[in-house]
Amino acid sequence: MDFELGIVLRATDEHQANAPTDLAKLAEERGLDLVVVEPVPADGAIDSWTLAAWLAGATSRIGIGIDARRPSAPDPADSAAPYPSVIERARESIDRLAPGRVMTDAATWVVASADSDAAALAAVAQRDGRPVVVPVNSREELERIAALVPDRTRAKGRRRSAAARARRVAGIDYDGVPESLAETAVEPGDPEYASVASTYLRGGQPGLVLRPRTPDEVGDALAFASRHPELPLGIRSAGHGISGRSTNKGGLVIDVGAMDSIEVLDVDRRLVRIGPGATWKRVAAALAPYGWALGSGDYGGVGVGGLATAGGIGFLSRKHGLTIDHVRAVELVVPDGRLVRATATENPDLFWAVRGAGANFGIATAFEFEVSEVGDVGWAQLMFVTNDLEESLRRYGELASAAPRDTTVFLVTGQPQDGMARLQLYGMVDNPDADTVVERLTPFLELGMLAQQQVVMTRYESVMALAADVGPEGQHGYGEPHSRSAFIDELTPEFARDATRMLETGAVHFFELRAMGGAIADVSPDATAFAFRTPAFQVTAMGARDDRLNRAWAPLRGHMDGLYLSFETDRTPQTLRDAFPPRVLDRLRALKRRYDPHNLLRDNFDIDPSGATSLAPAQTPREAIA
Ligand SMILES: Cc1cc2nc3c(=O)[nH]c(=O)nc-3n(C[C@H](O)[C@H](O)[C@H](O)COP(=O)(O)OP(=O)(O)OC[C@H]3O[C@@H](n4cnc5c(N)ncnc54)[C@H](O)[C@@H]3O)c2cc1C
Q: Out of 3.30.465.10, 1.10.287.110, 3.40.50.2000, 3.50.30.70, which CATH number does the structure's domain 164-368 have?
C-alpha cells in the first residue's frame, strides 16, 4: 500500500544544533515524505519556526510540518502566546523558502507510535487517509522507519506531497487530470507555481495550470476544462494579455507556451509556420537572416498566440498591414477537441473570425504567415518637452497621418508636470536609405524641445530585441491593469484638447497614440473580424484606478468609434459592442453557437452565443459616471 511516511523531530535543546538538520537530510535521502517539527514550549528550546526554517533551507524535497494553528487574537494573559500576525508572517516566509513544502496544520498528518511496524503503519494510513509520522530521536530509529517506506514502483504520474496537495483548490478534479497532461501540470503546491501564476501585467493564483505540448494535449486540456464550466478559464501563450485574462484566481489556465516552434515552409512564398508560444522577439530573430520581417506590436516580449488572434498594430503596419493580414492559415483546437484548419478556402468563416476575435473560437496551435521582405529600417526614439501639449498632440496627429506609409510613429505621454509634458516618440521608417529616414523624421522635430534622441539604421529584429527576456522564474505582474482603448478617425483639435484635459487630471499615467492608415486601410472591413480599417489612430489610456480612469476618459468618447480589444480591460456590454460593429457581432455570435455553444472560451471579450452578453456587471462605468 502506498502512503506518505515521515518522522517527528522535537525542537529541544537536548539536540546538538545540527542534529535535527542531519536527521531531516537523512529522512529526505531515505525517501521519507515529511518531517514534522514538534513545538516544545520549554525555555531554552529552539523555537520551532526557527528550526523549521533551518530544516527547509537544509533540504530540497521533503515536506516540513509545523503545528501552527493561528490564534485568532493575541492573548494578553499569556506572554508566551504567539501573535497571529507574527505567525502569519513566519508562515509566509518559510513558504517562500520552501515553496509548496510546508504544512502548518497538525490535522493534516497523523502520529503513529514510535515502535510501529510496517503493518501497523499501513493500518493507520488506511484508516486515516493522512500521512503517517513517527517520533524519532536518533539515526538508528530513523533508519528503522526508513526501511518501512512503502513500495511506490507502481505509482503513476507526478507524486505530490501532502503539503502540496493541501494547497489544492476545492472544485478542481486534480486526480482526473488527463494522463497526457499530468506530468507538466502545475498546482499551487508545486515549486514552479510562482513562475506560472502571474502574467506580465496581472497577478494571479490559478488553481491549476495545464501545459499542453501538442494539439492532442490541447484537446485533452479543453475536455478537462469543459468538466469545470463554472471555473474561470484562461488561455495563455506568452502572458502579455491586457484584455485577455490569461491568469485568474482559483480557476484553470491552459498555457500553450511550449508550442513555440518557428519553421520556414516555403522560401519562395516567404511562408512560415509559427507556434502560439513564440514571442515576436524570437520570430523577428528567426526571420532576419532571410531578410524578412513580420510586423507585430511594439514590444518583442508579446506572444504570437494573443496578438495574431486579435490584430497586431505595430511599427510596420502602415506599410505592410496588421499582423492578421499576413495570416494564411490557422490551426485551432476548438472546444469539442477537434483540430480545425482555417484558411481562405477551408472553413473560411472561422478564418474570418479568428483574425480579430480568435480567442473566442478555439486555442490556436499554429499559424502560417506570409511575411514581408524588410531590410534595414530607420529606428527613432525621441523625447520632447512641451508646454503646449494640446498643440503638440494636434500637430503630431497631422504629421503622423501625412507621413508616407513607410513611416510609422507612435506617441506616448503621461500627466504634464508643472505645465510641461514629456512626449516620447517611437518611430520606424521602413526604408534602407539613411537620408530618406532623416527626411521622414525631421518634420516631427517641431513637436517640442528635443530633450533626447536616438536615431539609428538597424533591423526590425534589433527593435524587437529591446524587450526583456522572461526566464524560468516566469512573469511577476501583480494587481489588475486598467486600460481604455479606442479608435479615432482623425486627430482633431477637439480631440487634442480633450485628451490634454484628461491627462491633466492625473488619472492616466500612460497614454499612447498608435498611427494607423496606410496598408491597414487597404483591406476591406469585411475581410476579417477586425473591422476598423479606416481610423487614423488607435488610442490607449492606462490608469491606476478604474473609476478615475473612466471619469477622465468619458469626455473623449464623443471623438471615438470602436475599440481595439487588445488594450481594453473594461468588461461592460457596451465595450463588446464597441469592439465589434453590429453586423460583425451578429456573425461572430452565429459562429460562436457553432464552435463554442457552451461558451467555454470567454476570457477575452466574451461573445456569449446566447446573445445575453456575459460581459455585464451590475452597473456600467458610464452609469457610474452619470
Ligand atoms: C507591453 C505590451 C505591448 C503591447 N504592444 C502591442 C502593440 O504594439 N500592438 C498590438 O496590437 N498589441 C500590443 N499589445 C497587446 C497584445 O497584443 C495582447 O495583449 C496580446 O493578447 C498578448 O498576447 P500574449 O500571447 O503575449 O498574451 P496572453 O496573456 O498569453 O494571451 C492573451 C489572450 O489572448 C488569447 N490567446 C492567447 N493565446 C491564444 C491562443 N493560442 N489561441 C487563442 N487565443 C489565445 C487569450 O484570450 C488570452 O487571454 C501589447 C501588450 C503589452 C503587454
A: 3.30.465.10
| Chain segment 195-235, per-residue pLDDT in tens | 999 999 999 999 999 999 999 999 999 999 999 999 999 99
- How much of the chain is in helix, strand and coil states, percent to nearest 5? 35, 20, 45
> Which tens digits make up the pLDDT trace of 480-494?
999 999 999 999 999
Distance 359 CA to ligand 1 centre (A): 10
pLDDT of res. 191: 86
Rounded average pLDDT over 63-73: 79
Mind listing the pLDDT tens digit for each residue in 496-545? 999 999 999 999 999 999 999 999 999 999 999 999 999 999 999 999 99
Between vectors from CA 145 to CA 143 and to CA 151, what angle results, nearest 5°?
Answer: 105
User: Would you put residue 599 in left (φ > 0), alpha (ψ -120 to 50) or beta?
Assistant: left
- CB of 244 within 6 A of ligand 1: the answer is yes
The mean per-residue pLDDT over the stretch 101-125 comes to: 89
Q: Are 603 and 554 in contact (CB under 8 A)?
A: no
For the entire predicted model, the pTM comes to: 0.87
Domain range annotation of the chain: 5-73+83-148, 164-368, 377-458+482-568
Helices (H) and strands (E) in the chain, counts: 21, 23
| CB 368, CB 308: distance < 8 Å | no
Q: 120-129: buried (b, 16+ CB within 10 Å) or exposed (e) per residue?
A: ebbebbeeee
Phi, psi for 92 (deg, rounded to 5): -65, -40
- Determine the distance separating the centroid of ligand 1 and the alpha carbon of 1, expressed in angstroms: 47
Q: What pLDDT is attached to residue 613?
A: 56
Write the class of the CATH domain 5-73+83-148. Answer: alpha beta
Tell me the pLDDT tens digit for each residue of 369-394.
999 999 999 999 999 999 999 999 99
- DSSP string spanning 282-347? HHHHHHGGGTEE----S-TTSBHHHHTTT----TTHHHH--GGGGEEEEEEE-TTS-EEEEESSSS
What ligand 1 atom has the least distance to the C-alpha of 279? Answer: 26
**What's the grid cell of residue 329?**
492559415
CA 401 to ligand 1 center in whole angstroms: 26
> Does ligand 1 lie within 6 Å of residue 311's CB atom?
yes
CB-count burial class (<10 Å; 0-12, 13-18, 19+) for 113: exposed
Our answer on whether the CB atom of 483 is closer than 6 Å to any ligand 1 atom is no
- The stretches of 192-267 forming alpha helices (DSSP H) are 193-197, 215-226
What residue type is assigned to position 98 of the chain? A
C-alpha 431 to ligand 1 mean position (Å):
28
Q: Are domains 5-73+83-148 and 164-368 of this chain identical in fold?
A: no
Fold annotation for 377-458+482-568: Vanillyl-alcohol Oxidase; Chain A, domain 3 (3.40.462)
Please name the residue that has the C-alpha cell 502602415: 318
Report residue 135 as a C-alpha cell.
517520533
